[in-house]
Specification:
This protein is mainly alpha-helical. It folds into two domains: about 1-80, no CATH class; about 80-155, no CATH class. The chain has six helices and no strands. α1 (about 1-20) crosses α5 (about 105-115).
Length: about 160
């Protein structure tokens, strides 16, 4: 039964992304193009989607974390690292550059598969290659050409 509930939650999330327009790369790129404000071509509607997500997360975390355990697990998996390092800065920067170039981010990319988008499929393949490559870089043994990463914590 938990898997069915989790599926329905994911389905609701995906439908919300589609309704909000987050799965339309053109809409996302029109939001990211702040230079279009001068010409009236900027689409700021996704700011409301993001603000809604931030509000739900802000209050949702406070309610959920009052529980001793999550509904579908034995413990919460929360970050333990508090400092800001290169990975914390570099990861979001790469994410933002990819989002700006493609107009697709990981969650909505999966919704594009439902409509048979080749661009979405290519994005997901590139994202998975990047994830595997990053894990390889972080966990590989040291070599004379590429020194071992100083932070070998799990991604």
């Amino acid at each position: 039964m938990p898997i069915l509930i989790q599926f329905l939650i994911g389905l609701l999330f995906g439908v919300g992304l589609v309704i909000a327009g987050m799965s339309d790369p053109a809409k996302v790129l029109n939001f990211l193009d702040v230079t279009a404000m001068a010409t009236g071509g900027w689409d700021g509607s996704l700011a409301f989607v993001m603000a809604g997500a931030i509000l739900v997360t802000f209050f949702g975390f406070r309610v959920v974390l009052k529980r001793k355990t999550p509904l579908f697990g034995s413990s919460f998996h929360l970050p333990t690292k508090l400092g800001i390092d290169t990975r914390i800065l570099l990861g979001p920067a790469i994410f933002g550059i990819g989002w700006g170039l493609a107009g697709i981010c990981p969650g909505p990319a999966f919704t594009t598969l439902g409509v048979g988008s080749a661009k979405g499929a290519l994005f997901i393949i590139a994202m998975l290659v990047g994830m595997v490559g990053t894990r390889w870089i972080i966990t590989r043994p040291a070599s004379p050409i590429l020194p071992m990463a100083s932070n070998k914590s799990a991604i």
